[in-house]
Specification:
Layout (H helix, E strand, L loop, with lengths): L1 E4 L2 E4 L6 H7 L7 E5 L2 E3 L14 E6 L5
Parallel strand pairs: 1-5
Antiparallel strand pairs: 1-2, 3-4, 3-5
Amino acid sequence: MKITVNGDLKTVEDGVSVWDFLSGLGLDPKKVAVERNLEIVPKSTFADVSLEEDDQLEIVHFIGGG
């Protein structure tokens, strides 16, 4: 199925969770924030929320610095 991630079209398997999708991208799900279809996805639900056709995701990475 197709979803949009930070403005880029991606193809993912049906029923993949937010957690598995992030892990597949090489991202640590504990260190990002995810907005799905204009709503923040709580980190505690990443493993329970399945992506659906035409979902729009915005993923923000936390970067430390000084």
